[in-house]
Amino acid sequence: MTLSAKERLIVALDVPDLQSAESLIEKLTGHVGMWKVGMQLYTAEGPKIIDFLHERGEKVFLDLKFHDIPNTVKKAGEVAARMGVYMFNVHAAGGMEMMRQTAISTREAAEKMGKPCPLLLAVTVLTSIDERTLNEDVGISGKVETQVVKWAKMAQEAGLDGVVASPREIEVIRQQCGDQFAIVTPGVRPDWAAKNDQKRTMTPEDALRVGATYVVVGRPITQASDPVQAAQMICESMEKGMNTSC
Ligand code: C5P
Question: Which of 78, 87, 169, 204 is the most buried (most CB within 10 A)?
Fold first, then answer.
């Protein structure tokens, strides 16, 4: 399936409540492909925000990073499928069995409802975790990149559709997991936008060029004086990257 640049652009709705989300959604509907609802907004508003987006025909990435025993996560996956979200994620650290059971249960739940199955993504090593933290605090030895690739391949073997990965991990995951594996990439910054707290950023053009399937962009769009223009400029940059992809 060939996706347009706009379809590949996911906007992070990192806002405290439905009211703040509404004004962004109203402004940007038609200019972006999907909305990422994370812990802050979902904890504040619950399924109301998902319903609000679905009623407007918008796609939702439910970014709650499930991490629990297999039975609990697979039940959450079934709920996500019944809600009809387009994608959601789990932590690869939850293990092969947790991911495998969640993939199966999510597909079965979607089938039962006659709804399309959500894309199921794995979060590998969080970008806030450096090698020292991984080795000493988490207790996993070796390099971050080695663990990222290991978990990405494990997620693929468990039947997941892709991973959330930082820009610097895109190439190696693409090489190891192939063309069909979805790579959703935050930490994307156009040259004209502030980096904020993102450290190892990549432009939208380069992220697409090296193999990202989707990019997640928050503040460069949501805090822009003209969010529609910002989204359009990012889509143009993504298109360039798609036309020159490796
Ligand atoms: O505003 P900004 O573009 O930095 O937003 C990026 C979004 O992607 C935020 O919701 C952030 O939590 C999320 N994210 C990230 N880096 C990760 C995983 C998720 O920036 N490794």
Answer: 204
